[in-house]
Structures are given as structure tokens and as C-alpha cells.
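1st attempt posting a full record on here, be nice pls
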Amino acid sequence: MANTRVFFSDLKSGRCSSFVEARLLRFWEARNIKRGGELMWVNMLFVDVNSTMMQASISASRLSRFQSKLAAGKMFSVSGFDVSRCAMNFRLSDSPLMFRFNDTTKFEELIEPVSPLPLECFRFRNQTELVGLANTNTQLPDIIGEITLVKSTVCDTPGEKNHVMATIRLDSDTTVTLSFFDAQAVAFHRKLEDMNGDPRVIVATSVNPKMVGAS
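the predicted structure (as C-alpha cells):
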């Protein structure tokens, strides 16, 4: 393992031989729908001791080396990776950088990190900030609020298009509408069925703000 520990805020573009300690918040597959859903890479979102989040990715060709270790919530030491600027669209963190695993990357689970790592990290935005991001496709922020109304077309009929619209009251007493389609709609519908009692408060991560119709 490399000898020097650094933080996400220390990273610069290029190869990094130092190590970072971070918690894996979540990971998901990126597939090419134009090629029959071919797996391109796995995206990840990490948070370090300073509550700084950073995106990372593993290409499909290297995934077999690391896949068995991937688990949301676990802590890792990562070294020997490539740092580059992330895409300007659909960003999940405030950092302009991301890192990619390469053939020399070491990815080791931590039981006792040097410093305690946050269990979670969010980028909550209020209604005014969401309006500012609407239709830009630049940031995918998080929101927290109370569910006040739900409209659902989820049914058991195969082939039907599923859609759920949930009205969320934010802490400023303003409201936004969350829309879910297809598999996400079904998953959210079932989650609502499992939530007993009111009020029902949810955290929604990586939402894409849109302004629909009149302002």
C-alpha cells in the first residue's frame, strides 16, 4: 500500500500513487442501450473523512478484479488510480474531478480507518436551488421532505406503462413533484406500501430537476 494518505480535496489530474480512505455510498451499472444493454462500466460514489464526495468508475474490462468487494456502506483504501475531470452533465458531487480504476489500482476493505468516516452524505437542495438547476442536466442533487400526495398507475397487468407521481413538501413548506417510471415506479410503489403510518418522510438522491409547463 502507498505510504501517504491524501484526501479527495488534495487530488489533482493524473496518476495518484497515494491512498485515500473512503466509504462507498452506492454503485450502479452504466449500460449502452444502443448495443443491447452492453455493460460499459460501473459508477461509484465515495465520501471521505471530510464529507467530500467524489465519483469513480471501473471499466467493464477491469470489473472482475473488484466486483466481489463492491458493497454499499463498506470502507476502503484506494490507491494507484487515475484522476481526471468529470463530465459537466449529471454530476453527483460538487467536485470537478473523478477517479478511475486502472490495472495497478489497489482496492482494500478497511475495518479500522485512520479517522472515522461519515456513514452517509447528501447534497440537499431547497426549492429555489432546484428551480435554478431545472432543465440544465448539470447536477443531480438530493431532496428530503414529506410525502403529501401520490398518484400511481402501477398495476399487475404485463406491458402496461407504470408511472408514479409523488408530491413532496420541503422544509420551506414549498412542494415539488417526484416522477418515477417503469421499474423505478414499481419499486417506489412497493416501498410506499411498506411504509406504515404518517407522516411519510423520504430522502430522494440524484434527482434531475425539471420545470414542466408554466412556472
